[in-house]
Structure formats: structure tokens, C-alpha cells
Amino acid sequence: MADSTQQLLKSVFTNGPIEGNNTSVLELLNRALKLVCSRLDCNAAFVITSQFDKVFAVDSDIIDTTEQQCVSYFGQSPDVQVLFNQSVNNNLRLCEALFTHVHPIIYSAADNKPAATTEPIILEHLLQTFSSLKIDCQQLAISPVTGVGNVKVVLATLCVADQTTIAEQQPDPAAFINKLLDDTAYQLASSLELRRLAVVLDSKDKQYQELFQLLPMASSLVDLHNNVVLLNDVWQSTLSIKVNDNLFDLLRPEDHPLLNDTLHIVREGILRQAWCEIPIKNGIKNHWYKFSFCHALNRQQQLLLIVEDVSERYRLADELSFHSNHDVLTGLPNRLQFENMLDDLQKDDDHVPACIAFLDLDQFQVVNDLSGHQAGDLLLQQVATRLKQLLRKGDVVARLGGDEFGLLMHYSDATSAQLVAKRICQQLFGHEFTWKGIKHNVSASIGLAQVDYDDPDIYGVMSKADAACRLAKEEGRNRWHFYNPDDPQMHTMYNQMLASVDITGALALNQFELFYQLIEPLDKKESGIHMEILLRMVQSDGTYVSPGIFLPAAERYNLASRVDSWVIDNLLKWGSDNLDTWRELSMVSVNLSAMSLADQKFMSWLEMRLMVEPELVDKLCFEITETAAVSQLDQATGLIDLLKPFGCKLALDDFGSGFSSFAYLKCLNVDYVKIDGQFVVNLCSNRSDKAIVAAICQLGKDMNFEVIAEFVENTDIGEYLRNIGVDYAQGYAINKPTRLAELTNGIRTPWLTDAISIVSSEERQALGLSATD
Description:
Elements: H1 3-15, H2 23-40, E1 44-49, H3 67-76, E2 79-82, E3 86-89, H4 92-100, E4 105-108, H5 120-132, E5 137-142, E6 146-148, E7 151-160, H6 173-214, E8 218-222, E9 228-231, H7 233-238, H8 256-267, E10 273-282, E11 285-295, E12 303-309, H9 311-325, H10 335-347, E13 354-361, H11 364-371, H12 373-390, E14 396-401, E15 404-410, H13 414-429, E16 433-435, E17 438-440, E18 444-450, H14 459-474, E19 480-482, H15 488-509, E20 512-518, E21 520-521, E22 530-538, E23 544-545, H16 547-556, H17 560-577, H18 579-584, E24 587-591, H19 594-597, H20 600-612, E25 620-625, H21 626-631, H22 633-643, E26 649-655, E27 672-675, H23 687-703, E28 706-709, H24 715-724, E29 728-729, E30 738-739, H25 761-767
Parallel strand pairs: 18-19, 22-24, 24-25, 25-26, 26-27, 27-28, 28-29
Antiparallel strand pairs: 1-7, 2-3, 4-5, 5-7, 6-7, 8-9, 8-12, 10-11, 11-12, 13-15, 13-18, 14-15, 16-17, 20-22, 20-30, 21-29, 22-23
Protein name: D-glycero-D-manno-heptose 1-phosphate guanosyltransferase
Organism: Shewanella saliphila
Domain EAL: 496-751
């Protein structure tokens, strides 16, 4: 043993424990050992514990004090905790034996006192240690291992030779010493465990405090009275509230119930965590904060509050809400917001007199075409600014889309609304708009309507204003028109507006049905039926709406291409489902709108749809009106180029309605020309009609197209047409439109038989023949 260790041990035996940094622990051990020495009248006592002194130091880390860790720790060190942190050279075997020994050991060096030990090697090792210190050991007593919590204690006493101890005076010295050591070791272990726990708790509290301060979000502890009792550093830079301030003092009175409910949910255990978002004035504007509460798990039953600034999210939400209700270009309310305002007005019980107006800029497309969309956008912004200046205070102007604006005028009648419309027309017409040296004229057409609170919804008054606006455009632009239900033009326009709504609904609900009408060959031997496909809208009561009512509305409101798509798609589906009948047919004609010709999206769809039905398309013939062909010659030529590879035919409908169209025939490679019905219906009695029809027939022979005559309402017309060389006839004399679903075969039944000679009406009368013979 080193000299320093010997001197240290001698000092302990003679002078008692040496004071160290952990004074309270050393004093506790000192008192325990003095008690043992006095009770047993021994020279010295010592303690071996599973705790190092540093475990009890406030500023040290807590180490694992299990038996295995303790043995491992002792094994790494040559020292054993003996005599109040005094080191004695030892080894792992001694340490391990002491901490696993469970029986009392009584040993006496006197020959007349037999040794009582189960581990003589350990005791001999200890005795050898004391002998090396030149201590005459008379008696050594060691307690079993006593454990309380994470602390284990072994207590031992040592008496020198020639001393009669108190224990020897007892009837059973071994039992007396064992009980005393056991009791003292248990008390010592309990005291050390309490001390350890106190240090652990103190260290935990410090760690909690450090962690609390290091939280990256504003955090505080709130007591049962909703007062702030502790704040972290982040809080200081987030909110102005201080310790002892009440949370409710931060909020507006109207927000108190929300915070109170959130606190109640957590404190009553309904939820382990709850949060609410509350606006708080921070500086000159309100900030939105998210307050999250949970239990702090301390004896004071405090709540941990974490505060997060969510103002940016609310700002973005407000911005999104603004964009969803306002036009991005002009900043005005959009159609959705305008309709919501109108809906709120209509539901108002006060029934405030009000008018609305639809304003449409005249020839706005010219600005886009000549100067570009940037110029158009700037013009819209300028018009929006002028409209806000020209309206009365409290009135609303909204951009409904494109170059259309909506006006909502409260406390307004027809007179005041027309004064506003007059002022707008005059001011906009005087507005100068120039873009890169190009000056554009600005004017507007305005439709006005009184808000009728008897209308079931807002779309009634909107349709009236829209119809009035369109009528103002048709009357010459730069004017206004107030809706009058007694005006025939207005009535027609309004019905078309309503029809457009019906078309949209019918397309969505598939409320259309296909009909067919025969196109009869007059001087040809055809076995199959040649027919034209017609369309009817089916109402909820099962009645049909004529295309003369809804097709103009479809053209006006850009629904024609959707209607044409429905017809072609459903016709081809019928052909696939009735393939045998389809193969018997000679030709199937389908009308295409002029709007569809100009719709590139529709034309692409048509090409793809025809490619899907290769066995059906060669029977198709597409009809376009003469007006559409003349006004859209490039589109008509493009349609021909699209159809010819599929084997489809092309017919020019309503031919002759535009007399100048004769010059365009050489540009169009059409297969059929349908003579407009106005030249056919009175053919037998009108010399002019006869001349025109005869000229068209001759034109067909010269230019290699076949001629179809519409509006054939009797056999006289049919016979006359055949006599002058017209190829086909179509009209009520042949058959009326019939549901396509009723067509069961495609075999033709001739209308005019070859047995009847072609004679004039006068000759028939002379022969006594009726018109139907």
C-alpha cells in the first residue's frame, strides 16, 4: 500500500473523518459511525456504499447507481469507498463479494473465539490490509448488504486487541452487533437515498429551467388564477406581458369566452392539450397568436403556455379570401362577390328599392387585336377607376368577366338608374385611350333592371339586365336600355337568356333526344335511307322544345359547340348499338354550328371522335350554313380538309339566302347544296322561285354537286323538283321528324313512284287526278 494511503487511513482511525466538499454527506456518515462506535465501544467503524461522493454533488452528473454499474465502476478504479471516502488499495473481487454478501460476519482473532464467516478469504484480505497498517485487529464485524432505492450500504466495525467491547458483555454478542449494524446501515442507506433524490430533483429542476429557457417558442407557466408566473427569453421579444400579469388583460373582452373555454378544457382533463387563436394588438396593428395549453405536471397545477405568431397565415388567408372575391386586374369585386351582394340584398327584409346594371364595353376585342392584351388590361383598369368615380356613394361596381361590369345601385328607381347610365355612357365615350400612338374609341352598352323581390333567386334580375344590355348593343351601342317586359324584343331576348340556362341544365342532365327526317331521292335508285339528324330538348313534363327556340340561345351564349358535341357523340353511340341498321343507311346528315367551326377545341375533338368509329364515319354528311361558309371561309375549308380523309361528305345548307355566295362555291368542294326553303315553299306558283331553283340545279350539274330542296310540303312540289333535275327533297310531304329510337331498319320506302308520270298541276286537273295520286 502506498505511503499516502497508509497515512490517510491512520488519520481517519485516529482523528475521524476528513471534511470535504460534500460536507452534509460526510457529516451524515460521521454521525452514523460515531453512533456505532459508541454503542459497541469500538475503536473505529467504516462504511462501504455503492455511491460515490460526486453523486451527491449539486454540480455533477447523476450516475447509474445500480449494483452492476457500481461493480463496473469499482472495477475500473483501484480504490474502494472506505472510511468516508478514504481510499484503501483493493480490487474488484473484494468489492463484488461485499455487495453480494447477505450474511453477518463476526470474526475474532482470539483463539478461544471461533471464527463465524462464510467468506474467510474476504476477511483475511481485510485483516491483511489492517495488519499492513500495524493495527492489532481483535474483532471485525460486517453487516449484510442493505439497499434502499439506488443506495447500497455495507457497515463494518473494528476493535483492537486487549479491549473488552460492549458487545462481548451481551448474552449473544453476534446478534447484538448484527442488529445494531443492520439498523444503522438501513438508516444510513435511507438517509443517503433521500439525499440522492433531493440532489436528483434539484438537478432535474435545473435541467427543466434550462430547457424551458431554451425553447424556441414563446413559453410561460400560468397559475390557477391565469397569471403568468414564469417566462422564457423568447417571450420577452414576442409579447409585452410580464410576470404576474393576467392573460385576460391581453385580450379584447369579446375574445375572453374563447380563452376561458380553452383553459377549461385542459384543466378539467377533457383534452390533454387545447389551443385557440386570438388577435392581440401589438404595436399599431393586430397580430394573431396561437395559444397552446397543457399541464406543466408540477405540484402547483400550473399550465404550460406556448405562444406562436400566426399573423402571416391569417394575412395569407385574408389575401386568398380577397383574391377569391375580387378581380386581380382591377381590384373590383368579382362575379361571385357581386352575386353574393345581390343575394344578401334580395334576402333583406327591408326590401330596399334597388337597380342593377350590366355594362359591356363596345368593340373591346378591337383593342386587344390591334394593340395587344396589355393595352386591353390597361383600358379595363382605367374603366374600373372611372366607374367608381361615376357611381353614387354606397353603390357597387364589379367586374363580371372579360369586358363586362356589374353595377348595384341601392335606393334607386328607374329614373335615377337611367341618369347614372346616361352619365356613364357620356363620360366613357369622352374617355381618351391611346396606346403606342394608336387612339381607341371607348363606349359602353348598359342594360338596367329593377330588383324584383318576388323573383325566386337573383338570376331572374340578372337575366333581365343581361337581356337589356344585349338589346342595347343590337340597337347601335353606346346606349342604355331599361328592361321592360312588355317590349317584344326584350321578351324574345329574355326568353333566349332563360333558354341558355335550360341548355346548360339539359347538357348536364342529358335532357336531349335525337330525331330524324328523311331526305328522299327524286330520280335515283337508292336502297338505303338518306336522313338528317335533328335535335329536341326534353322538358321535365316530357314535352319537347323546338330547336328554333333553344338553338339561337346556344349560338348567342357560346353553347353551340357543346350542343354539337352532344349530337355527334350520341349519334355515333346509336350507330354502334344499331350497327346492322346503320349499314343499311345511305347517308346521315348532321348540322354544325358556325360557332363550332371557329372552335379549335371542338374541331380537335371531332377529329379524334371520328377516328374512334372507322366503320361508321363514311355514312356521315356534315351540314354548315351558307352564311357560316361565306363568313368563315378558312374554317369551312379546314372542315373539308378534316372530313375528306374519313370519307365524310359536306353539304351547304340554306343556299341562296345570301346571293353573293355564288362566287364562293368555286372555293368550296362541297358534295351537296340544300336550297333555302323560302325558294321552295311557293315554287309551283312563283316564277322567280322557279328561276332561282333552276339556276341552282344547273349550277350543281356544272360544278358537280347534288342539290337538295327543303320545305317540300306537297307532291306537286316534289314532282316539279324531279322534273327540273333536283336530286333530293326534304319536307313534311315526305315525313315529319321522328324519334331516332323508333327507327328499326335502314331500308328506304320510295315516296314518288315511277308509275306516276311527271306532269304539271294543270295537266293533272285535266286528267282528273288529285294532288296525291
